[in-house]
Design brief:
It is a single chain. The protein is mainly alpha-helical. It starts with 10 loop residues before the first helix and ends in a 7-residue tail after the last helix. It is built from 4 helices and no strands. The chain has a domain of 47 residues. α3 packs across α4.
């Protein structure tokens, strides 16, 4: 993923990669589901505690929002 706001040669913001969990979260961030619904879906899909999944979602959402790669609808 390349943020739209990235500057030419700005290595920190030039490329953002997602791991398996991040890709699963990103795939569910459709502007329709709430973050709570995304967490419930991933809790059913992955063998992890709901609190861990919720923390992962919030961490990714905060990071993407800070890079202006995700906006609130």
């Amino acid at each position: 993923m390349v943020p739209i706001a990235a500057g030419v040669g700005d290595a920190e913001d030039a490329l953002f990669t997602l791991n398996e969990t991040g890709r699963a979260i990103w795939g569910l961030l459709d502007g329709v589901r709430s973050l709570r619904q995304v967490a419930a879906e991933l809790t059913r899909e992955f063998e992890a505690a709901p609190a861990v999944i919720e923390a992962d979602i919030l961490g990714l959402v905060r990071e993407l929002a800070s890079r202006r790669m995700l906006v609130r609808k």
